[in-house]
Design goal:
With 447 residues, the chain is mainly alpha-helical. Among the domains are: 2-62, no CATH class; 232-410, no CATH class; 417-446. The chain has 23 helices and six strands. It has helices at residues 2-18, 20-23, 28-32, 35-44, 65-68, 78-85, 103-106, 126-133, 138-145, 151-169, 202-209, 218-226, 234-240, 248-255, 257-269, 275-296, 303-306, 312-322, 335-357, 363-381, 383-401, 409-433, 438-446; strands at 114-115, 122-123, 187-189, 196-198, 325-326, 331-332. The strands form three sheets. It has a two-stranded antiparallel ribbon with strand order 1-2. A two-stranded antiparallel sheet has the order 3-4. The chain has a two-stranded antiparallel sheet with strand order 5-6. Helix 15 crosses helix 19. Residues 19-101 have low confidence and may be disordered. The structure holds zinc ion (2 copies). One zinc ion is lined by residues 190, 192-193, 195, 205, 209. Residues 190, 192-193, 195, 205, 209 line the site of one zinc ion.
C-alpha cells in the first residue's frame, strides 16, 4: 500500500512540474505512457528541436516584449480586427504563399495624374506640385492667395488643370473633366477653357462656359481646334472643315495629312462654290475606308501606311465593307462609291509620291516611291476584277430597272397655260400702277 501511495504521489508531482493542466491533453492514453515517452516530449519541447512550439512551452522566455504577446489593436473597429485575424479564404497551393491575396489592395482607388501646365509633367498631387515647384508663377500665387477650399481657388485650379491636360489630351483623350460611363464615348475640347467634355454634351458646357452666348457648331469648332496646329491648306481649313459634319469620320479625315492633301488638291482644281461640299464628301469617303482598314489591320495608322501593295487585299475588303457588299447575292448596295473610290486612291498615291520625292533622295525614298507606283498599277489592273466590274454591273442593272416618268403633252399644255396666265396678270398690274416694280417684273419672269 505504502509503495503504491508513493507511486501516486510521484505521478502527481511529475504532473505538477509539467503543468499538464494547462499544456497537455487530458487523454487517458497519455497517462498510461511511460517515462520514455515523456522524455521524448520534453526533448521536442526544447528550443533546439525543429518541432519546438514556443506557445506550448511554459518556460519560454521571449527576447522582446513585442513578441511575447500581441498588442491590442486600439483605434481599429472590432469588426475590422476580426476581419484581419480571419484566415485567408483561399487555400494556398504548392509554391504559393499563405498570405492573403493582394487583389483587393490592387483594386484600391488610384488618383489619375494631371499634367502640369508649366513643366509638362504628369503629377499625382497637383496642388502640392504647384506649391513646391511653381510658387514664383503669378497664376499660382493668385491661386494660393485665396482661402483653402474656397470657390475662387477651386475655379482657378480647375482652369490650370484643364490647360495642362489639354496638352496630353490633344493626341488621345486620357483625362476628361468628367468620365463617361460608356467606354465608347468620345470627348472634345471646349474652345474657351480647353477642358475635354463628352462630345454629346459639349454644347451644354460651352453655353455655360461662354456665359449664355451661342454655342452653335460646338463639335465642329472643337475638332478644328484639335487640328489647328497641323500644316493643312488654309482654304481647306476655312471653307471645308466648318462644313463637315462633326463626327468620328470627319475627325479622322482632318487628322490624316494625305486625305487633307487630297482635299486641298481637289479644291484647287474645282474652284466653284458648290465643290466645297463635294470635297467634304470625298474626304469623308477616304476616311471611312481608312477607319475600316484600321479595324482589319491594326498596324495601319494613316492612309500613307495603307497604300502599300501588301495591304491591297485589305483595301478591297474595306471597300466592300463600306459599300455594303452582299456576299450571298454578290451585289453592292452603293456601287457608285465602289467604282469611284479607286480614282481617289490613285490620286492619293500620286500625292504621296510627290511628297516622298520632295525629300532628300535615299534608298528609303526610292523604296516608298516604287511601292506607291506598284500600288497604282495594282489599282489600274486588278481593281476592276475585284471591285468595280461587279459594281458597274450592279449600277447598270439599277439604272435599267429604274422607272423614268416622261412628261406628257397634256402636262406641257397645262404648264404653258399657267405661265401665260401669270404673265398676263403681271402686265395688267404694271399698266395699272404705270410703274415697273420689282415685284411685277419678277412675276413676269418667273410666272
Ligand atoms: Zn510643374
Ligand atoms: Zn469651357
Amino acid at each position: 500500500m505504502a509503495s503504491s501511495q508513493e507511486e501516486v504521489m510521484k505521478f502527481w508531482n511529475n504532473r505538477k512540474t509539467n503543468r499538464w493542466l494547462c499544456n497537455r491533453s487530458l487523454s487517458p492514453n497519455e497517462d498510461k505512457s511511460g517515462n520514455d515517452t515523456r522524455q521524448e516530449k520534453d526533448q521536442q519541447n526544447s528550443p533546439a528541436s525543429p518541432t519546438y512550439d514556443s506557445d506550448a512551452d511554459p518556460e519560454f522566455v521571449p527576447d522582446t516584449e513585442s513578441e511575447s504577446e500581441e498588442e491590442p489593436k486600439r483605434n481599429i473597429p472590432k469588426q475590422k480586427q476580426e476581419m484581419e485575424n480571419k484566415p485567408p479564404l483561399i487555400c494556398a497551393g504548392e509554391g504559393e504563399s499563405a498570405e492573403p491575396s493582394r487583389d483587393a489592395a490592387s483594386k484600391k482607388y488610384k488618383r489619375q495624374t494631371d499634367m502640369c501646365y508649366f513643366c509638362e509633367t504628369d503629377v499625382q498631387n497637383f496642388v502640392r506640385h504647384l506649391r513646391r515647384n511653381h510658387l514664383c508663377e503669378t497664376k499660382v500665387q493668385e491661386i494660393f492667395s485665396h482661402q483653402k477650399n474656397s470657390v475662387e481657388r477651386r475655379k482657378l485650379l480647375a482652369i490650370l488643370k484643364k490647360k495642362g491636360n489639354f496638352i496630353k489630351n490633344s493626341e488621345e483623350c486620357v483625362k476628361p473633366v468628367k468620365k463617361a460611363r460608356s467606354p465608347s464615348a468620345s470627348f472634345l475640347p471646349c474652345g474657351n477653357c480647353l477642358g475635354f467634355y463628352r462630345s454629346k454634351f459639349l454644347y451644354r458646357h460651352k453655353k455655360k462656359c461662354l456665359e449664355g452666348q451661342s454655342a452653335k457648331n460646338a463639335q465642329s469648332e472643337a475638332q478644328n481646334l484639335l487640328v489647328k496646329n497641323k500644316r493643312i491648306d488654309q482654304r481647306l481649313k476655312v471653307e471645308v472643315f466648318p462644313r463637315m459634319r462633326a463626327d468620328k469620320i470627319s475627325l479622322e479625315a482632318k487628322n490624316d495629312y494625305l486625305i487633307c492633301a487630297y482635299g486641298a488638291r481637289y479644291l484647287k482644281t474645282h474652284r466653284e462654290k458648290h465643290f466645297i461640299n463635294v470635297t467634304s464628301r470625298k474626304m469623308r469617303e477616304l476616311s471611312r475606308i481608312l477607319l475600316e482598314l484600321k479595324k482589319l489591320e491594326p498596324t495601319i495608322h494613316n492612309l500613307f501606311d495603307a497604300l502599300k501593295p501588301k495591304h491591297y487585299d485589305q483595301l478591297v475588303e474595306a471597300t466592300k465593307s463600306v459599300a455594303n457588299y452582299d456576299t450571298v447575292n454578290d451585289t453592292f448596295d452603293s456601287p457608285t462609291f465602289a467604282m469611284n473610290i479607286s480614282t481617289a486612291l490613285k490620286q492619293c498615291c500620286d500625292i504621296a509620291i510627290h511628297m516622298v520625292i520632295k525629300n532628300e533622295p535615299s534608298v528609303e525614298t526610292a523604296t516608298y516611291e516604287a511601292s506607291l507606283k506598284t500600288m497604282i498599277n495594282l489599282l489600274q489592273s486588278n481593281w476592276r476584277f475585284d471591285v468595280s466590274g461587279r459594281a458597274g454591273n450592279d449600277l447598270n442593272l439599277k439604272k435599267f430597272n429604274k422607272v423614268t416618268i416622261v412628261p406628257l403633252a397634256t402636262d406641257l399644255r397645262l404648264l404653258k397655260n399657267y405661265l401665260l396666265l401669270k404673265a398676263g396678270e403681271a402686265v395688267n398690274e404694271m399698266l395699272l400702277m404705270r410703274t415697273l416694280t420689282l415685284l411685277c417684273w419678277r412675276q413676269f419672269i418667273v410666272g
